[in-house]
Write a structure and sequence with these properties.
By secondary structure, the protein is an alpha+beta fold. The protein is built from 8 helices and 7 strands, in the order H-E-H-H-H-E-E-H-E-H-H-H-E-E-E. 26% of the residues lie in helices and 8% in strands. The longest helix is centred in the middle third of the chain and has 15 residues.
């Protein structure tokens, strides 16, 4: 998978279309850094009893009246958060891997990193999940989200520490997760992507990497952050 190739070179069951914008500019790198010009900032949660739609139906807007994923600005021109873009990446993974996104992520990422209490998507093993609260400190009913790649990870503090350590310098300067995330890919993830500065979102010294937000301090230290939230959680 070439991060700078158009995703249309890889997708079969669904593809972005536009009469106004350059579709070939929708690349994996731009989707990861939220600069691909795609719509849908976030998905509404649905009751746990309701099955999640197939991701291609979600993208096409043919499931239960959900809005289709569209190109709404010139790809590569500006940062704009898009959970819809991560749904595109979910389909991309499924088509290239030939298996469900959650299965691929468990086999290729979560289990190799030692994240044995984590998975994408709701399952009975998660019945004891921590309950979320709203701003009035009242319990909210748990929901799940149509796009697993955007908002479908269930995990623990300990497992997330495994993920964080995978990006940190380990023995002899080698990242602890180098066997799972190569040093070359890690470098790409943690450098500012083009046209990602957003004063509204990041402040004076912020940019987006691939999945991470990067903040530079006056002491030339960089903080790597992943922010987000859902119904009852931050």
């Amino acid at each position: 998978l070439d991060l700078d190739e158009p995703v249309t070179n890889y997708l079969n069951t669904w593809q972005p279309v536009s009469d106004e914008y350059d579709v070939s500019g929708v690349t994996t790198r731009r989707i990861l850094s939220h600069t691909a010009g795609l719509s849908i900032a976030g998905f509404e949660g649905i009751p746990l009893d309701d099955p999640l739609p197939d991701v291609e139906l979600l993208l096409a807007g043919t499931h239960d009246g959900m809005e289709a994923i569209r190109i709404v600005s010139q790809p590569g021109s500006v940062w704009s958060y898009s959970a819809g873009g991560y749904a595109v990446l979910e389909l991309l993974v499924e088509e290239l891997a030939g298996e469900p996104f959650s299965d691929y992520m468990s086999r290729q990422v979560l289990e190799p990193l030692g994240m044995h209490h984590s998975r994408f998507g709701w399952s009975p093993m998660l019945e004891d999940v921590a309950r979320g609260h709203n701003s009035a400190q009242l319990l909210v009913e748990p929901v799940h989200y149509p796009a697993l790649a955007a908002a479908g990870l269930y995990s623990t503090a300990g497992d997330l520490a495994h993920l964080l350590s995978a990006t940190m310098e380990g023995v002899q300067g080698r990242p602890a997760g180098a066997d799972v995330i190569s040093e070359e890919n890690l470098y790409e993830m943690l450098k500012p992507a083009a046209n990602t500065w957003s004063a509204f979102q990041f402040g004076e010294n912020g940019n987006a990497g691939l999945g991470y937000v990067l903040f530079s301090s006056r002491r030339r230290h960089t903080r790597y952050i992943q922010f987000g939230g859902g119904q009852g959680y931050r």
